[in-house]
Design a protein that fits this description.
- The protein has 11 helices and 2 strands, in the order E-H-H-E-H-H-H-H-H-H-H-H-H.
- With 205 residues, it is an all-alpha fold.
- A two-stranded parallel ribbon has the order 1-2.
- Helix 3 crosses helix 7 and helix 7 packs across helix 9.
- The two termini are 27 Å apart.
- 27% of the residues are buried.
């Protein structure tokens, strides 16, 4: 159950198989039941296994894998999650949802239009760098409790994302490659960590 001030009962819906949400709703016999289902499981709180894989790999320091396509990303996620966290608990679930909330904010930024077809690459690295620049102390549970981001965090992510895009663009140009290709290489996160970012870390600590 997600926290909210109105005491409405709402849940995030994990769509393990594509179309599972709609099938579940269609299986309900009356309009009242379908309306109740939508109230308890709003469609904007639906997330897929591909979403899980992308945000987990990005946060775990593997944004290069998060941008290699849904199948590759999910395969990497399943292999690593079994090694690191074979039995996910409630804290894992809540922190995962928090990462999805961050990822969706990054996805909806109007500035993404200027990134062209590399939006997903910027998003993956922004999520990875949020963890790194906070020294792995970013409070994911605060995001879960609020079911959203503070103005400070949004400001930080806006600035960071634009800087990451510019860095990836400049680096790929020097290497005579594309941002998409460069973003899939293992060295990128290490390169980013060496860069002097013009951000205020106090906004996220």
């Amino acid at each position: 159950v997600i926290p909210n001030e109105n005491h409405d009962v709402k849940h995030w819906f994990y769509e393990r198989l594509r179309g599972q949400y709609d099938e579940r709703k269609k299986s309900l016999r009356t309009k009242y039941d379908r309306d109740m289902f939508e109230a308890e499981y709003p469609s904007d709180l639906k997330f897929s296994k591909e979403d899980v894989a992308k945000v987990w790999c990005s946060w775990a320091g593997m944004p290069n894998d998060a941008v290699k396509g849904a199948t590759t990303t999910y395969t990497t996620f399943m292999k690593r999650i079994k090694e690191i966290c074979p039995v996910p608990d409630e804290k894992f679930y809540k922190e995962l949802i928090a990462k999805i909330i961050i990822y969706r904010f990054l996805k909806k930024r109007p500035e993404n239009k200027s990134y062209g077809n590399v939006k997903a690459t910027v998003m993956a690295y922004a999520l990875a760098m949020l963890r790194e620049l906070s020294f792995d102390k970013f409070d994911l549970m605060k995001v879960w409790d609020a079911q959203g981001l503070s103005d400070n965090v949004m400001h930080f992510l806006n600035s960071l994302s634009d800087q990451i895009y510019q860095y990836l663009y400049n680096k790929s140009q020097r290497q005579n490659t594309t941002i998409l290709s460069y973003g899939k290489t293992k060295d990128v996160l290490g390169d980013l960590l060496k860069h002097p970012w013009n951000v205020d870390r106090s906004l996220i600590l």
